[in-house]
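FIELD: query
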Amino acid sequence: MSDQSEPLLKSKKAITLDETIESCIGEFGWAQFLQSILISLSWVFDAQQTFISVFTDTLAVSEWSLIGASSILTGLPASSFFIGCLIGGFLLSTLADTKLGRKNMLVLSCFIMSITGAITSISTNIWMYSFLRFLTGFGRATIGTCALVLSTELVGSQWRGQVGIIGFVCFTIGFLSLPLIAFVNRDSTWRVLYLWTCLPTILYSILVHFFVRESPRWLYVRGNKEEFVLTLKSITTRSSLTLSFFGSFIDFEDQEHNNSESTISLYSAIKMLVEKNWAFKRLISVMLIGFGVGLVYYGMPLGVGNLPFNLYFSVTLNALSELPASMVTFFLIGKLTRKKSLLGFAILSGICSIGCAIVKDNSFKELQMGFELVSFFSACTSFNVLLIYTVELFPTCVRNSAVSMVRQALVLGGAFSPILVAFGRNNRWFSYGVFGMSIGICGLFVLCLPETKGRTLSDTMDEEEYKERIFVC
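FIELD: result
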């Protein structure tokens, strides 16, 4: 033991947290796989509540005799959901970096979303319905962020991109389940859809609470040594002796993580992002990209009702297009650079979206649907790459907050999309035209960001700032 540990002890100061964790969990074992799957299942329920309005809002509007009402009123429930996501993201995002951690925040978000979603089924008017959709959006705001950050922080850098894609595949499955559930219950009231999608989420929240481990990175940054070591032992394929050595090898008192960054208070993560010029520049750039991507990503499924196709068939095709987007990201994330991938798919999405606005003749409806599907597929791929890119751009102490801010930018785009879709019923340039120009222009901001492909994750602002100086030079 002494012969093996001596070289490591001599290089103690040179070994970073990322390298230490890589040594422990770099090999992808069954424990990590099962943890990743269980965490990523939250995306299934997230997708269901995100796109359920495609089937429920039209029926609710009919039930309350609001057909022919203003576009703002009929689009109010969907917009309320996205506004709730936006506000919830700002208010809840830093809790995962500070007080609660990734796991507890995931459980809380799923529980709030499921309870308010179930109560939505007893709505008696458009105002109550919209308010409950707002609360559902508020609750689900951090689900995707916590799931992505938690799952990727449980594995080594070699598997980070692939594990992130598992969540996107689960989101696709959730999206695909909606037309199936809606079709099976087509003779029932729209209220049944909320019960079918929300009650299983309550059970899922309980499972996560008891069976999912907290992020070892977050535990380390917070100074929780004992749970940090226990978590590594529970997910690593290495022997307990090796883990015990690494647990004693990491000096929690001497490490730089035990400075102010390791005891960050509520909202201080956002303060750090704003105070550092390089971090603020990155944050603004990825948020602008996110706004453009979100406008198309959330707007396209809501707008398929304006095309001359069967609604169930159109939504199913859109959901199916998420699957190849996830597969493309899965197989290419380790080969292509983040910047070129994101820029290319954003521009392609914009071109095809504008194509939907140009082709107005219903005799070319197959071409219209083709443009719509390619645009949505490209937006889905951009969405996937953007989130993984954001994880790599920011250090552990602010990572969840940064990813959450980007998701809020995506949701902000989604909040505008129902109104644009409503206006687009008479003129597609107000929907598809605006979608295309927005994602194309916003995608250009990727040119302001550094490339992160193949880089290790940083844990403190100082460590990432050092890498930024190297990038600038």
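FIELD: remark
The chain has two domains: 16-247, 265-472.
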